[in-house]
Design a protein that fits this description.
10 helices; two-stranded antiparallel sheet; disordered N terminus; about 35% helix; alpha+beta; single chain; 4-stranded mixed sheet
Length: about 280
């Protein structure tokens, strides 16, 4: 059989993949596609579509080993390896909600407003830098250079207004009249904002691990330390392209109860925002 015919026969066979949650072999159509530049035509995500909609407790119950399905006639080594893989998988399914997210006490409106004032105070301390030294090059642009998360250097040409905004809002510094340098890579900037805001959502006061723009990029905002704050995933999605005041007045989503722990002394913990 020739190689093209063999490839054609292999392509005609239904492709299957094991789900990382239920450990069942299912066709590729039951999995979501992976996105990105390095994703191939057959790249799929780990969990199947049915398991992605389950709660973490249901995933752990689905992946737990069943005593009735155990085959006693199987070899000891094979049985031991299957039990080890299933136990490890159930442990991974139950860890993220409990281990990665810190347990916090309920947040009051007074504590939420106090956190917003603290973040606004930190942003006000970032005084605008002087941009009068910038000059256009022969192409009528400003050269911007920086580094990727892997440490590779890059450069590009940007307009004068954008260069002045990046320097003014402390995202870049002036190297010479024709060049500015970006201070943070994407990963460094994310870690800087999250640590500055103590992993606390600017809007609801709950646990936050995403970055949101005070002035949306759709309305001319830029990714700078002055314009970015920490936000939880729900507030980030609900706010979308709205202004901060408009979003807060319309009603901020309350933090998830899973992030809270019952306080021992409710009177002593009232108004406390754990960050």
């Amino acid at each position: 059989m020739t190689e093209p015919q063999q490839n054609k026969d292999e392509a005609s066979k239904p492709l299957i993949k094991k789900c990382t949650y239920c450990q069942e072999m299912k066709p590729l159509t039951d999995f979501q596609r992976r996105t990105g530049r390095r994703a191939g035509p057959y790249s799929r995500r780990g969990p199947c579509r049915s398991c992605r909609g389950l709660a973490p407790q249901e995933r752990a119950a689905t992946s737990a080993p069943s005593g009735e399905e155990t085959n006693p006639s199987a070899a000891p080594v094979t049985q031991h390896s299957l039990e080890a893989n299933t136990a490890a998988h159930s442990l991974e399914a139950s860890l993220p909600m409990e281990a990665q997210r810190p347990r916090r006490k309920p947040v009051t409106d007074k504590a939420r407003e106090r956190h917003r004032q603290r973040v606004r105070h930190l942003l006000s301390r970032l005084k605008p830098a002087d941009t009068r030294a910038l000059r256009l090059n022969r192409n009528g642009m400003i050269r911007l250079r920086g580094k990727t998360d892997q440490g590779r250097r890059w450069h590009q040409e940007i307009e004068l207004d954008l260069a002045m905004t990046l320097v003014r809002e402390r995202m870049a510094v002036i190297v010479n009249p024709y060049t500015v340098r970006r201070l943070y890579s994407n990963k460094e900037f994310r870690q800087y904002v999250l640590k500055r805001d103590r992993y606390t959502c600017f809007f609801c006061g709950g646990y936050g691990d995403t970055i949101d723009h005070l002035l949306p990029r759709a309305k001319g905002g830029h990714t700078t330390p002055v314009n970015c704050v920490c936000a939880c995933n729900e507030c980030n999605q609900v706010k979308a392209a709205r202004d901060v005041d408009e979003f807060i007045e319309s009603g901020v989503p309350q933090p998830s109860p899973d992030d809270f722990e019952a306080p021992d002394n409710p009177d002593a913990s009232e108004g406390t925002l754990h960050t």
